[in-house]
Recover the amino acids of this structure.
């Protein structure tokens, strides 16, 4: 398969299984991408990530631009040579981080100027610079430079911003020189259906190897977010991968996969692991809770990860209390495996035409009798409820 | 082989290779024991430790007594059931930690009273209590309760202390009930040859599965320490393992193995790794040094560890600068592998009757032309220089 030519291999309602070829291997969707902000998924060896089924790692352009700098990463052969993960990488454009880390100094047509959180330097990021940095980093999948407006934003701002993001997409594409990187466009429009539709349709005027749904999971409710996902995947072409940026809660993955989303990323599984919590089908276990100190069972019965196969909740709770790195490591490993098992289960269910059953079984354990309306609605829109 | 019946399988000068059977497997000496203070070698999975050749892990009775408590560890099946390392464990007596952590409140014939660094509680540790705690923890090798006096200490204090330690050894032995744990006695006497000899000879009146050389590497110079090691191994029986406590610098291992020491432990390789340094044949690389950011070679050319096989100094230096956990993990892994390769190289050299060559080759890289006298003297005493 030629790089980036996405192929849907199975469908159930609006959910689908697909193959996305990249220069560093073909990956199967839906999939969750662990975040390696500074070129390392915190606490985990690349071989551990491979073992638990990670397929693509995400690195943050903002962080790597500041340290160690794009030219240094290029000199080591890009992320693949630098960071020990030989499979596909995805880099974001840096835009979101500039805004979310709050060091933004100026935003205008040209781009953004921000202050480095490391040394206070003023740094400019433009579509051209973002692409140049992403070309130096060398990821397989790269992102157009966009603005992700805060939530809530006035409608007029959202509108002006999404139009600028479209002009930035055009500049990003013009700046791009490497044929071995696939550039995704990013749709915006906040939670306004008209603006979201406008942004999506205008972005689709560019024929790209994939499209990302941006500007969501930034503070709005699930009731506001999922109609935007539904609207987006209804407009996006079947034969292109859809990437819902920054989403990583298990229930969000199940709802979004039902609507035909293929790619996800989020710091949630690793961050919540470092904070001492384990993802389980019922939600989240806080290992700081004293009752876990006595428990001999694994984090999650039936989980095949190294943490669950070899350690008890009691031991991991002891590590968390004692501030031992190994606690964060085992929880991060399990939490990522939890999300990978979730997408693997979804793939099997889609292939067997039983995604509705899969989602219902998930919801029963996650929510009990009170399955929230936003979840049922998303699944119903996807043709599964 | 019956547990703890040590067998010397090869000799070169005073250096030797031996087999030490324990209930959780026979280990080959000389060996270095990674320290898992709170039941975890910081940042490393048990399978990573197995892969790099770790054979025995050490856990600290002081820490585990305070948290999670011996009864909780016992309820999980002791350290073997609790902490995911199924091979042999060794626990110290807690005495050294009480003194070195500086929370000591009282020391008398009965034992010590110290203040918990966790909650301020006053806790008593006696020979009987130390053994009871170590029996609950369930390590294969346990240590008699001793006092490790600070350096320097007045001769009169050293003398009174070592005599009390001998009485504590007797009480430790009387308190011991589990036949599946081997108890080592600990010799003291500071750097006073007469007292060191006295302590060793008196300790030898107890027929034990092994003997530890205690009270060294606590601040004295190498010139003061190695004559004590020499004197000790000359007195200790050939058919018992000798354990030099708290020693982990590579040059110290090479000198001490030459004198017939079999077991070592130290936090040095993991602690120095967490602080950003790598052990190499020439000494130590500080990865915080800017020049390493550009270096594409591994931490140590020819090292077979996962860190050296997959990552450059440049990447690891980036991780260290960025405060990424993975930096500490990769450095700890390499540093432990460095010491394990050192003892493995020593074993091969002893078997082939060329320990002198081994020590000279080590010294040439480590010290260049100026091999310190204490090192040459130790090697000469061992019959290798």
């Amino acid at each position: 398969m030629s790089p980036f030519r996405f192929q849907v291999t199975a469908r159930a309602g609006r959910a689908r299984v697909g193959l996305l070829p990249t220069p560093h291997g073909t990956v199967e969707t839906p999939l969750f991408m662990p975040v390696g902000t500074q070129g390392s998924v915190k606490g985990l060896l690349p071989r551990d990530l491979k073992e638990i089924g990670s397929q693509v790692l995400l690195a943050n352009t903002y962080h790597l631009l500041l340290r160690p700098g794009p030219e240094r990463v290029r000199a080591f052969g890009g992320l693949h040579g630098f960071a020990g993960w030989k499979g596909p990488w995805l880099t974001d454009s840096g835009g979101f981080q500039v805004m979310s880390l709050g060091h933004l100094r100026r935003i205008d047509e040209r781009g953004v100027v921000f202050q480095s959180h490391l040394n206070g330097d003023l740094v400019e990021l433009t579509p051209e610079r973002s692409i140049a940095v992403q070309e130096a980093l060398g990821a397989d999948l790269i992102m157009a430079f966009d603005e992700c407006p805060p939530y809530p934003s006035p409608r007029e701002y959202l509108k002006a911003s999404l139009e600028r993001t479209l002009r930035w997409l055009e500049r990003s594409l013009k700046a791009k020189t490497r044929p071995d990187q696939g550039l995704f466009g990013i749709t915006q429009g906040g939670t306004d259906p008209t603006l979201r539709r406008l942004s999506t349709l205008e972005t689709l005027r560019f024929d790209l190897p994939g499209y990302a749904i941006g500007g969501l999971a930034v503070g709005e409710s699930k009731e506001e977010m999922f109609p935007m996902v539904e609207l987006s995947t209804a407009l996006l072409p079947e034969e292109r991968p859809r990437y819902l940026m920054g989403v990583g809660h298990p229930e969000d993955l199940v709802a979004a996969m039902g609507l035909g989303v293929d790619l996800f990323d989020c710091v949630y599984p690793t961050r919540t692991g470092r904070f001492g919590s384990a993802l389980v089908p019922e939600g989240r276990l806080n290992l700081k809770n004293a009752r876990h100190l006595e428990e001999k069972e694994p984090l999650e019965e039936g989980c095949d990860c190294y943490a669950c196969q070899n350690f008890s909740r009691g031991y991991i709770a002891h590590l968390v209390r004692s501030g031992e790195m190994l606690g964060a490591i085992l929880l991060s490993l399990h939490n990522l495996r939890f999300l990978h098992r979730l997408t693997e289960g979804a793939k099997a269910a889609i292939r067997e035409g039983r995604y509705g059953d899969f989602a219902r079984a998930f919801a029963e354990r996650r929510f009990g009798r009170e399955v929230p309306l936003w979840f049922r609605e998303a699944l119903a829109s996807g043709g599964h409820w």
The radius of gyration of chain B is 20 Å. Residues 325-351 of chain B form the longest helix (27 residues). The interface with chain A takes residues 38-48, 63, 67-68, 72, 75-76, 82-84, 293-294, 296, 306, 310-312, 314-315, 318-319, 321-322, 324-329 of chain B (CB under 8 Å).
